[in-house]
Design brief:
Number of helices: 11
Distance between the termini: 34 Å
Shape: globular
Helix content: 40-55%
Structural class: alpha/beta
Number of strands: 13
Oligomer: single chain
CATH class of the largest domain: Alpha Beta
CATH architecture of the largest domain: 3-Layer(aba) Sandwich
Order of helices and strands: EHEEEHEHEHEHHEHHEEHEHEHE
Strand order of the largest sheet: 10-9-8-13-11-12
Radius of gyration: 19 Å
Amino acid sequence: MNEIILLHSFAILTDSSADLSAEMVQQLDIQVLPLGFILNGRTYRDHPDNRDMDPHAFYEGLRQGEVATTTAVNVAQYTEALEPLLRAGQDVLILAFSSGLSTTYNSSRIAVEELREKYPHRKLYTVDTLCASLGQGLLVWYAARERARGRSIEEVRDWVEDHKLNLCHQFTVDDLHFLKRGGRISAATAMVGSMLQIKPVLHVDNEGRLVNIGKARGRQASLKALVDRMEQTAIDSGSLTVFISHGDCPEDAQTVAGMVKDRFGVQEVYINYVGPVIGAHSGPGTLALFYMGTER
């Protein structure tokens, strides 16, 4: 963020839990604050261009038993990311990782309060997206689209607030060990589920938390369950933009993309990795489907 080029009336800043690729970040002309993760005692930053670690290598490490943890972003890191934009004369809209899963939004809120005093002539807002992974990324995509249509920073902020609870997140995981380790399920549930090939179906609720909403017997059934849920809740499914993220299982992501296209006639599907910040807790084989719906 050393060189600031003013292309829009205001900047949009999100964090790397949005799981947007470097190409998408450039296309949308947004700023991304890289979050941190720790693998084998070494701290890395989750940059969109994967400069610190290739995502396939990250998941291979998890498969080999390496343990990954995540680090919370602090107020100073937000301030460091925001000040160059404010000094360059930009107003800034922050779209932050769900407060139900992280302290990231709270850090952004404190930084905003402090920087408003230092830069009283700049507009600076932060939104708790209550979203995660490419659900957050899709909400950022919509925000950038509204900005490109000429909407003001307040209008885009309000659009995001009005629509964020329509951003549907449907998840499944392949290895229950990671949900057990994170306290999402009990050890007994993980053991029995693994033996019987029971795969959980989860979503992000209106409080921005990851919750279990069902289960399926076997991997293919769990992938189909995500698309079945979309059929129940999607708005104008044929014209939707759909995002899919995966924990190093690109073939499964393509399978779900194919089902979405065949069943709903969806034309635009964007696929990318579940980044290390969320992947540390969900594990290899995570598959997530995101779209706009009537309700989460």
